[in-house]
Amino acid sequence: MLPETYVKGFHDEEQIQKMTYNDFGNTGLKVSTISFGTGVFCYAYNDIDLEECRQTLTRALKSGINYIDTAPYYGHGECEEILGQILQGIPRQAYYIATKVCRYNKEIKSQFDFTAEKAKESIDLSLKRLKLDYVDILQVHDIEFAPSLDIVLNETLPAIQEIVNSGKARFIGVTGYPVKQLADLVATSKIKLDVVLSYARLTLFDDSLSQYLPLFKKHKLAIINAAAHALGLLTNTGEKPWHVASKHIKDVCAQARKLCVQNDIELGKLALWHSLQQQGPDTTLIGIDSLKIVDYSLEVLHHGLNADEQRVYKQVLEIFATNLNEKHWENYEVNKYWELIRMLS
Description:
GO terms for molecular function: L-galactose dehydrogenase activity. The chain is an alpha/beta fold.
């Protein structure tokens, strides 16, 4: 059965027939098993080539991926602007798109703003950049940086509900790195939540999301497992200098990377395959900035790993099981942020 995002004449119908579409919580949407993260469409990650971005996103959509994630924080609006240019040539029916509010730029004093006023201003700017009338999902970006969950519960989420009521967004989501804080918010919110996005917490070396899946399912939330590549740690290219993981985590990931390079195997394929095997999430969201990543992601989804990749995958799992003494960097970035805020006050 073809999804509602299928557009005759735009899509490759053979590829669409091969794609698996999952119920997206209680939203009524059917979302592809792999979804498209565009945080890499900004200079914090790459030297941006608009035409390459266009080709990459277009191939992904034509091949059946139908969920796009972005945010004003990515490149201080640059990512949304690039998307806005690309999406002009793509039928609006062909995709669902999510953006975010509350996290905006790299400047410490103005990086976060959880007020209702800023959220309403932000969605208008996002729609202008994206050249759209509405987004499908509007998310609170990184709730752990709020002064308290109270402002998210009592100001940010009611503002997003107003935005939904106005027709500028369809569903409400929350994102964050500490999964327990996401769970606490879900358990206490009086505003109906539709989507929860957890990133880098169901990967080759961190399964923290697993214990909270029953709660999220109980609340009938759509569950997004984002950053299967742990923000570059689990790729042959490696992480960017700004990655906040400890040296220990980076060093063990480098061991896994070295093994993959020696065997001419892409660690990113193994990481994606691992995340796709985990039960619970409705879609696995990965940053995609090249046709190569689109192609190997679809290959993993449709065909799995070959014998050599399976062999190296088991060795990679052993590297993490034997050598890794910690599996996350929770609180590091938040504590550093509040320390800098105090210094600037």
